[in-house]
Every structure is written in C-alpha cells, then in structure tokens.
Write a structure and sequence with these properties.
This protein is an alpha+beta fold. It folds into two domains: 12-84, no CATH class; 104-158. 16% of the residues lie in helices and 29% in strands. The protein has three helices and nine strands. Strands 7-6-8-9 form a four-stranded antiparallel beta sheet, with helices on one face. Bound molecules: zinc ion. Zinc ion is lined by residues 40, 42-43, 84, 88. Residues 1-34 are annotated as: Disordered. This is DUF1203 domain-containing protein.
Length: 160
C-alpha cells in the first residue's frame, strides 16, 4: 500500500540526546529486550528479541515546537516511548504506514501547538483518510498517532 503521508520517526539528533538523558531529565537505562515486539519510535517497527532498547520519556510536541518556534504552553506532554539504545538505521523509506494494526487516535494540533481535536481510527486502511480529513482543515499543522488504551505517542505526521 502506498502512502501520501510520511510517518516521522524521532529525529536522529533528538534520539542522540534521549539515549543519554530523556525529556523528563532522567538518565536513560538501556536493557536487552528478551521478548521483542516493542514499538520502536526510532525505526517505526517492532524490536527483535535480543535488541538493546530503552524506555524513555519523550515530549513530541515540545520537540516539534522548538524546531518551529511555537509555544504550546500547557499542551506540552511527556510520555513513555521505546527506542533502540544505540544508533540504528531508522525506518525503511517508502514503507507502509507503521503501527496500523490496532485502534489509534489521530490527534490534531495547530501551528501554535494547541490541540484541535482528534479522531479514533479503527481500520488499517482508514489512516490515510483520517490524515486527509485532518489536513483538510487549514488550521491543522500536524497530527500525532497515538495508542488508544495507553495514550502513548507513536509518530507524527506533518502537513508538509
Ligand atoms: Zn531503531
């Protein structure tokens, strides 16, 4: 399935920081993943048994805002994400949208970094439609794809 939208992994520069200290100021504690299957925000795929990974606090909106010069104020949130503990090649370019195998929320944000609403996405083939619908509103600058039950941030899709 081809996609017109790009799932953005955590930027390499940010990963480098998170692999030392996370966005909550805690030192990163890598461990060997014995089971595999952790959703990695660096590669946008699942970990393999034996991978060295870390669970870190990440502030996706704060990181985006720093890049764009926006001030999300109280909308800033920090949450747990899995990443490879060491340098990794990142996601396959041109791959299908990741993590579409479960119910997700697509949360919309304005250029100021304020929440503009969201939508529950239940079927893998309706993600494209949910993004198209979000960006039909000219006020929407980016969306977050999040897990429904845990609320965890999975990846970002931007208008550009
Ligand atoms: Zn990785």
């Amino acid at each position: 399935m081809t996609t017109t939208y790009t799932a953005r992994p955590i930027a390499p520069r940010v990963l480098k920081e998170l692999r030392t200290t996370d966005d909550a100021g805690r030192p990163t504690a890598p461990f060997t993943d014995t089971e595999g299957g952790a959703p990695l925000r660096c590669c946008l795929g699942r970990s393999e048994p034996g991978d060295r990974i870390a669970l870190v606090s990440y502030a996706p909106l704060r990181r985006w805002a720093a890049e764009k010069g926006a001030d999300p104020g109280a909308y800033d949130e920090v949450g747990p994400v899995f990443v490879h503990a060491d340098d990794c090649p990142g996601p396959d370019t041109g791959a299908a949208l990741p993590f579409t195998n479960a119910h997700r929320t697509v949360r919309r944000y304005s250029a100021e970094g304020h929440i503009l609403g969201g939508r529950l996405v239940e079927e893998p083939e309706t993600f494209e439609q949910a993004f198209a619908e979000a960006f039909d509103d000219p006020a929407v600058a980016l969306v977050h794809v999040r897990a429904v039950e845990y609320g965890c941030f999975l990846y970002e899709v931007r208008r550009d």
